[in-house]
C-alpha cells in the first residue's frame, strides 16, 4: 500500500492519542496515523514498529525543551 503522506515536523498542536501530552512520535499505519508522547511511544514501540509504514521519532527534541513540559 502506497500512500503519499508528507512528513512534517510535529508541533505543540500534535497530541498523544493516549494521554493528550504533546506528541513526539508519529506512526503511520495502513489504517491511518497515530501520535504518541515519548512515554507512550516507548510503551507501544515493540508492537507497532514492525507494522508501521513510517516511524517518525522526534523524541530527540525533548532534550532541547524543559523536561517538566516534555512528557506526561
Ligand atoms: Zn502519551
Automatic annotation (TrEMBL):
Which Pfam family, any one of them, does this sequence belong to? DUF7455
Q: Which InterPro entries match?
A: DUF7455
Q: Which residues form the DUF7455 domain?
A: 10-62
Q: What is this protein called?
A: DUF7455 domain-containing protein
